[in-house]
Write a structure and sequence with these properties.
alpha/beta; Rossmann fold; 2 domains; 5-stranded parallel beta sheet
Length: 328
């Protein structure tokens, strides 16, 4: 080989080295931002369900996707800064769970990064999406219909305790849905010919104070409205209901498995799995505007008979027959 040909060949190979090195670089791992109004302790099982849904689309945390978690611990005022901080990190998808407070904070933080939300009420009504079938914009998700089932829960509680002429209502006024929850409960109470007494609570002390008044005034029963702040205090609420001997209705089965009396709501594990599926589909290239807002079709009515016996209650056979799960 002639010297000039050798130098040309060597130069061409050297020029190709950077290209080869570049081609061998692994693809960047996408990051999901996960912001929640709740806490890691009370949602550990839900995060597992979310990760399961994500894996159904081929994404495994720590392998081909990373997740940055932010928890407001029921303090809604912290959510705006948390969502903004995740947006500044250029996450590929922003997942917002824990109802309207987290979803609205995510929506306010970005109009471009895809958002997958979980709301307790109508996402169209609060401006998150244009419609259920065609969300438009950068957000989609699931309506877990927690805050819109208060009337149904009141009816079930009345069936359990028909002798209770006054029913206590524990409500967090800081939740964006609070007034609509209260309107639904007032309408349902009129139809049932019962009186409701509302206890507003935004702190642990106010929760305990509500139970003290309920006990002192001999209010026969209590409905805890659906609210992420209350979810972060699940164990405390169940313990207070037991201490003050107050038959109490909740919105998630987790309260009943923790020792609460009765609940009516969606299958939360399936809902959070669906959130993971949607996040994975977006990472695969689908647009939020093309993914219809998901609405659950499976609801769970759960009764804890052990708790009923401790409270001295006889659960009507008609309610037991309709229960999806009876904890002995």
């Amino acid at each position: 080989m002639k010297r000039r040909e050798f130098i040309t060949l060597l130069g061409g190979a050297a020029a190709a080295w950077p290209l080869a090195a570049t081609a061998q670089q692994p693809a960047p791992v996408p990051m999901i931002g996960y912001v929640s109004a709740r806490s890691p302790d009370d949602t550990a099982h839900l995060v597992k369900a979310f990760l399961r849904g994500l894996s159904e689309r081929g994404f495994i945390e720590g392998r081909n996707v990373t997740i940055e978690y932010r928890w407001a611990l029921g303090q809604y005022e912290r959510l705006a800064a948390m969502a903004a901080e995740l947006v500044s990190r250029r996450v590929a998808v922003l997942v917002a769970t824990g109802g309207e407070p987290a979803a609205l904070a995510a929506k306010a933080a970005t109009s471009t990064i895809p958002i997958v939300f979980a709301t307790g009420g109508d996402p169209v009504q609060i401006g998150l999406v244009s419609s259920y079938n065609k969300p438009g914009g950068n957000a989609t998700g699931i309506n877990i219909v927690t805050t819109t089932l208060e009337a149904k829960r009141l009816g079930l509680l009345h069936e359990l305790m028909p002798q209770a002429v006054v029913i206590g209502i524990l409500l967090n006024p800081d939740l964006p849905n609070a007034e609509s929850q209260l309107d639904d409960l007032r309408n349902a109470a009129r139809a049932l010919h019962v009186e409701i007494q509302v206890f507003r609570a935004t702190t642990d002390r106010e929760i305990e104070g509500a139970f003290e008044i309920i006990s002192r005034q001999h209010i026969g029963t209590l409905l805890v409205t659906a609210d992420p702040f209350f979810d972060t205090r699940r164990e405390r609420l169940v313990a207070l209901a037991a201490r003050y001997v107050v038959p109490t209705m909740y919105h998630f089965r987790e309260y009943v498995t923790a020792g609460g009396l009765i609940s009516y709501g969606i299958d939360t594990l399936d809902a959070f799995r669906q959130i993971g599926v949607y996040a994975g589909r977006i990472l695969r290239g689908e647009r939020p505007s093309d993914l219809p807002v998901f609405q659950p079709t499976k609801f769970e009515f759960v009764i804890n008979l052990k708790t009923a016996k401790a409270l001295g209650l006889d659960v009507p056979p008609t309610l037991l027959a309709r229960a999806d799960e009876v904890i002995e």
